[in-house]
Amino acid sequence: MEPIIIVLIILVVLVFIALMKTVQVIPQASAAIVERFGRYTRTLNAGLNIVVPFIDSIRNRIDLREQVVPFPPQPVITQDNLVVNIDTVIYYQVTDARAATYEVSSFIQAIEQLTVTTLRNIIGGMDLERTLTSREEINAALRGVLDEATGKWGIRVNRVELKAIEPPTSIQDSMEKQMRADRDKRAAILTAEGIRQSQILTAEGEKQSAILRAEGEARAAALRAEGEAQAIRTVFESIHAGDADEKLLAYQYLQMLPKIAEGDANKLWIVPSEIGDALKGLSGAVGSFGAPGVGGGGAPKVTKESPRREQPPID
After folding, report:
1. To 10 degrees, the CA torsion angle through 95, 101, 103, 108?
2. Whole-angstrom distance, CA of residue 102 vs CA of residue 173
3. Does residue 299 register a pLDDT over 70?
4. Whole-structure pTM over 0.85, yes or no?
5. pLDDT above 90 covers what percent of the chain?
6. Cα end-to-end distance, the chain, whole Å
7. Long-range contacts: 63-68, Cβ < 8 Å, 24+?
8. How far apart (Å, rounded) are the C-alpha atoms in residues 260 and 262?
9. Cys-Cys with 154: which of 99, 184, 235, 264 at CB 3.0–4.6 Å?
10. What would you report as the CA-atom Rg of the chain, rounded to the nearest whole angstrom?
């Protein structure tokens, strides 16, 4: 009985192993290469798959999702004979699992070497300044070459990025000094431009202030002249309306003479020639008030300019 039990146990184990070999579960976004006696048979897609146990074998399982692979820095010589280290990052995706398995032994290593050689060809035709400022151009050229070369391997290169471009240390120091000098130059230019603009605005303000001040003074002088003219016109009209004689005008003229002499700036007072006529008129006015008959018992004197009637003497 014991040999029979041992045989049964062995059969159960074999059946269990055969079931495990027969049923293959492939995850989503994955694929598996099936070989029969070492020859490619088919590609298993995601889901439950049945294979012939002990005859079919799984050669390779491939992830169909987009992969990101960073490559170490590579020394590249520019057109002006400067060595720069460039880090690259490749975004690729397997589109054909069979080609990725049988067309190339290691597609990751093949992509890395192809990236290095293509990058050296591209950078070799550029100088350092263009290399530092043309990342998009380098990425596009590198992606075009890689996508064309890896198509037969069942690989699609979606993106190529230059992660870092490191020039030599001496070149970095020179670039930093140049950038510092450019910043100092721009700061000096901006300072000078600010001072110039400030001076222009100050001059414009002073100009506008002088213009407004002159306009105000001219307006004030015009208003003063207009007021004086109006005052003279009013006095003139009042004099004519009151029918003033020469004696009153002479008296007013003598009253204005002290006002003419007022002020600290008047060092010399010139007596006008008309003062004699004014004094004559004033003396005539005083004589007529002091004549006999006016407060002194005499008869009033009748002049030619103002005829008067004779009055009886006052007792």
Report:
1. 80
2. 49
3. no
4. no
5. 12
6. 198
7. 63/29, 63/30, 63/94, 64/29, 64/30, 64/31, 64/93, 64/94, 64/95, 64/97, 65/29, 65/93, 66/91, 66/92, 66/93, 66/158, 67/91, 67/92, 67/93, 67/94
8. 6
9. 99
10. 61
Q: Are 214 and 222 in contact (CB under 8 A)?
A: no
HEC states along the chain?
Answer: CHHHHHHHHHHHHHHHHHHHHHEEEECCCEEEEEEECCEEEEEECCEEEECCCCCEEEEEEEECCCEEEEEEEEEEECCCCCEEEEEEEEEEEECCHHHHHHCCCCHHHHHHHHHHHHHHHHHCCCCHHHHHHCHHHHHHHHHHHHHHHHHHHCEEEEEEEEEEEECCHHHHHHHHHHHHHHHHHHHHHHHHHHHHHHHHHHHHHHHHHHHHHHHHHHHHHHHHHHHHHHHHHHHHHHHHHHCCCHHHHHHHHHHHHHHHCCCCCCCCCCCCCCHHHHHHHHHHHHHHHCCCCCCCCCCCCCCCCCCCCCCCCCC
- Maximum CA pair distance of the chain? 198
Burial of 303 (0-12, 13-18, 19+ CB in 10 A): exposed
Q: For residue range 275-295, list pLDDT tens digits in order.
A: 566 556 555 555 554 444 444
Find, among 71, 99, 97, the residue nearest to 85 by Cα. Answer: 71
